[in-house]
Amino acid sequence: MLSFVLVCLVDHFCAYLVAYGKDGEKLTVGDYVLFATYIIQLYVPLNWFGHTIDRFRKILSIWENMFELMKEEQEVIDAPDAPDLVCSRGGIDFSNVTFGYSPEKTILKNVTFNVSPGKTIAIVGPSGKSLRILIY
């Protein structure tokens, strides 16, 4: 925004010199057009460069946050006897899955279902009953 204002001020100053300049300081219309063309040719790449630097700075900030997140310890740890997750057929099998945010408050108890490859299922229930955890 500031660079746009500066370009406008310089442009108006040059227009003033064309219209009201003294003999030694007066610009011709050709000089004005040439100067305005140079300003535009410089403004566009410099503006693009500024946006590129801003994007790069944002990306570096995102990378920094990502690496900090990777250093965090996992809060959810599999049970010692949990089987490995195997994706061989492309389907999803839930077999006796129990889940809760704390041991005292179990939300899912022994849930079992199968989703065949290429099929879609819908899980319905009352609002606020933690059905969303199956989507994650």
UniProtKB/TrEMBL annotation:
Q: Does the keyword Signal apply?
A: yes
Q: How does it sit in the membrane?
A: Multi-pass membrane protein
**InterPro entries the UniProt entry points to:** ABC1_TM_dom, ABC1_TM_sf, P-loop_NTPase, Type_1_exporter
**Where mainly found?**
membrane
Keywords attached to this Swiss-Prot or TrEMBL record, sorted alphabetically, are: Membrane, Signal, Transmembrane, Transmembrane helix
Question: Can you supply one Gene Ontology CC term for this chain's record?
Answer: vacuolar membrane
Task: Output the Gene Ontology terms for molecular function.
Answer: ABC-type heme transporter activity; ATP binding; heme binding
Superkingdom, taxonomy of origin: Eukaryota
> Where does the UniProt annotation place the signal sequence?
1-15
Q: Where in the cell is it found?
A: Membrane
The residue ranges of the ABC transmembrane type-1 domain are 1-58
List residues traversing the bilayer.
29-49
Q: What is this protein called?
A: ABC transmembrane type-1 domain-containing protein
Which species is this UniProt entry from? Polypedilum vanderplanki (Sleeping chironomid midge)
